[in-house]
Amino acid sequence: MIVLKTTRELSLMKEACRISAGALRVAGEAVRPGVSTWEIDRIAYEYIKRQGAEPNFLHLYGFPATACISVNDEIIHGIPSKERILREGDIVSIDLGAKKHGYNGDNAATFACGTVSDEAQRLMDTTRESLYEAIKMAVPGGKIGDIASTVQRYCEARGYGVVREYTGHGVGKELHEDPSVPNYGTAGRGVRLVPGMTIAIEPMINQGTAAIRQMSDGWTVKTKDGRLSAHFEHTVAITKQGPVILTVE
User: Fold this and answer.
1) CA 20 to 30 Å from 183, out of 15, 127, 190, 212?
2) pLDDT value of position 18
């Protein structure tokens, strides 16, 4: 069931999303060679708590950390670890959110650790650009397929693989709500977009094929071919005036 938000509820969500955006910013600022992914997770946790919010990923479905931190060929759900030390040239995807006043925010971005290769930078740029192209399609009267097909066309035209098994989603009182928001599909199909909907749009794009593999920890998902992956996400409100990105400070 899709839950539409009132003006008051959107105001509450904006606060959770603002904190989520701030947490992602400070986590990204901590990405540098020699830092552990555990330390980045700690920084995000402490930021969220200082804002009077709760890290909504922590213990969700049993996940053991504040942020999913996925490095290089890890697509999503990487578990932070004191043993995972970042190196020059890594690309680091951080996915996290905060809950406050009963509402959730959710966002993600991929950060360069020091100087990265031109190929890695192009992957990150394309993934981020596809997110903003997709957000333009989040208008009343449109369809989920308009968002999905935009990501797919943008990324596949540049030679990248679009992950199928994981999607964006609705966001609200629950972190994961209806509807599902895929990154592939057909324009003009799917759920109709109406004011009051709040959705997370999150392209997960592989440098090579779209194929994935699940790791033995039960969480981490990697590219099957071992090539790089990037991930960007915003929580977006559908309004009469057009799409509004909520996950901004």
Assistant:
1) 15
2) 98
